[in-house]
Amino acid sequence: MSVTAALTSHLKDPSLITDALAALPESSAQFEVFDPATGALLATLPDMGAAGAQAAVDRASQAQGAWAGETAGARSRILRRWYELILAHADDLAAILTAEMGKPLAESASEVAHAAAYVEWYAEEAKRIYGETFPAPGNDRRMLVIKQPVGVTGTITPWNFPASMVARKVSPALAVGCTTVLKPAEQTPLVALALHALARQAGFPDGVFNLVLSSQGEPVGRVLCAHPKVRKISFTGSTEVGRHLMRQCADQIKKMSLELGGHAPFIVFADADLDAAVDGAIQAKFRNGGQTCVSANRLFVEAPVYDAFVERFAEATRRLKVGNGFDAGTAIGPLIDRAAFEKVSAHVDEALADGARLMTGGGRIGESGTLYAPTVLSEVTASMRVAREETFGPVAPILRFEDPAEVVSMANDTEYGLAAYFYATELKKVWRVAEALDYGMVGINTGRMSSEAAPFGGVKQSGMGREGSRHGAEEYLDMKYLCMGNI
């Protein structure tokens, strides 16, 4: 097990990752982590697999009772210390994230700050888990509800936001008294390893926060879903994998939080502020190179402003610098791997063959690697695959619409329901469209809406449950009704 100079050369304090790696158990099986921008080997890690997951669940189960029995204030103080340590090591955490995931360093720094914000939020929320009392039907009894931690939780995080997703899932579980077993994505385990090391420094007792590093996603997931001591699964990833996990959890009726695929519409009405709409579309489409579950995947623009919007949006897209995430001014980094690159290329090639018009981009940058030029396609139709499937890359297909009522139906015509965006100024239209869009989150005249203070999640086949806000803590609590007689 080791890390290479390709990683440590970017760090002010390499011991953050080297000490964390040295603390891991030995394993005969190993897997490698690479920089998607350069292909350089970053680290060789122990592949803990199903056996490691089983051992982690056992540790979490043993620690559960004592952790749940801690006072809310004690849990809050440890979370607060974790938050402070994340801020103190923010630069190195951002560098680790950029090295293993590829996103621009400025975006990585923003993500680390966002992760810290979730930890701070739930450090505070730990002290605000309230029950309730309510009037009984007779004077001989009292009726009340208390809330208790569900128990051991299994957490599976994705590669596209490998720091903020850890914080968003783990911190509410720990805050309310649950222990957890975290399995980060095999492409991006290093920032999770560093965050886990900082959590241990913060004072979480042994067995409370457990880490399983592995390239064997399916066997590890099977352990977490099948183990009777694991009372809840939290997963962010594809809808296909989410369905699979649901089936595995069905026999135990296990509690689940699922944040799955998205197919976000971005609607620009004729009365919109076009400059603001272009800025919002750049954020909603090209953040993280389009590799986000809330990325604007279909842009619908009303006919009277279609040409003007396309021209301005394409011009703004041409100004985006693509390259290594460590290079100054980079706005878009590499796609995560070759499969992602090939999917993006296929969507664009098929759209062009079917009659879409290429406004900018449309191909690889460089002779090799996974840098794909930010791409704008106009004259796209709803039948094209780029408009029917989630591309998960820096491609913006723009569709024209004539009827404001019809566009809502077009936007809702998908199995997904995570996020939607629209730009308009007429107040009546704003309320009508916001209520009609069949999505868990709607951004109105903004291209970014994620916040630790707000509930994040979707409807339909985009998942169940919410993360962030007080609702995120509720996902890790069971409600218990107490009826006290003979009063």
Layout: helices, strands, pairs:
Layout: E1 2-3, H1 5-8, H2 15-22, E2 30-34, E3 41-46, H3 49-69, H4 72-88, H5 90-101, H6 105-125, E4 132-134, E5 141-149, E6 152-156, H7 164-176, E7 180-183, H8 190-202, E8 209-211, H9 217-226, E9 230-236, H10 239-249, E10 255-259, E11 264-268, H11 274-286, E12 296-302, H12 303-318, H13 338-353, E13 357-360, E14 375-380, H14 385-388, E15 395-401, H15 404-412, E16 416-417, E17 419-423, H16 427-436, E18 441-444, E19 459-460, E20 463-464, H17 469-474, E21 477-485
Parallel strand pairs: 6-7, 6-9, 7-8, 9-10, 11-12, 11-17, 12-15, 14-15, 17-18
Antiparallel strand pairs: 1-3, 2-3, 4-5, 5-21, 10-20, 13-14, 16-19
Helix pairs in contact: 2-8, 3-9, 4-6, 4-7, 4-8, 5-6, 5-8, 6-7, 11-12
Notes on the protein architecture:
Pfam families: Aldedh. This protein has helices at 5-8, 15-22, 49-69, 72-88, 90-101, 105-125, 164-176, 190-202, 217-226, 239-249, 274-286, 303-318, 338-353, 385-388, 404-412, 427-436, 469-474; strands at residues 2-3, 30-34, 41-46, 132-134, 141-149, 152-156, 180-183, 209-211, 230-236, 255-259, 264-268, 296-302, 357-360, 375-380, 395-401, 416-417, 419-423, 441-444, 459-460, 463-464, 477-485. It is α/β, with parallel strands linked by helices and 487 residues long. It has 2 domains: 2-260 and 462-482, Aldehyde Dehydrogenase, Chain A, domain 1 (3-Layer(aba) Sandwich), CATH 3.40.605.10; 264-451, Aldehyde Dehydrogenase, Chain A, domain 2 (3-Layer(aba) Sandwich). The strands form 5 sheets. Strands 13-14-15-12-11-17-18 form a 7-stranded mixed sheet, sandwiched between helices. A 6-stranded mixed sheet has the order 8-7-6-9-10-20, with helices on both faces. Strands 1-3-2 form a 3-stranded antiparallel sheet. β7 (180-183), α8 (190-202) and β8 (209-211) form a beta-alpha-beta unit. α5 crosses α6. The mean pLDDT is 97.
